[in-house]
Amino acid sequence: MRAISAFVLTAAAILATALPASAAQVEAAVAVQPQARLEARGAAVVVPTQVMCQNGATGSLWVQVTQNVRGELAVGDKYTPSVPCTGELHKVDVTVVSRTKAFRQGVAFTSASLNAYLPPDSSGIAEDNREMRIVR
């Protein structure tokens, strides 16, 4: 019985050293601010966000806005391929253009996703989902 236990432990140790180490997590955070600004008679909204990603990483940001406008959805999204990654908070204003109908003043639901990558194989994702108020 002891020979089998020793064999199992030895095999497990060899297997553990043969497997690659898991990728480290990159620090990342995103926060959608509670108020957005209506632009171009509702064709777009400017969504202020705050982002933070680890110094030396590269970051990209995706923001989506959905609003119920008289029973129909106004929806738009915007991908920002590069945001500052210094380890500090940065304000990033994202202009989201509606793909359906015009946005209007009032409540909308907003989702934001920050992807951060640090070569050679470290990454991190941060998300924020919240209601925000669209104002003029």
Automatic annotation (TrEMBL):
List UniProt keywords, sorted A-Z: Signal
Where would one find the signal peptide in this protein? 1-23
Spell out the protein name for this chain.
Secreted protein
Biological source species? Lentzea cavernae
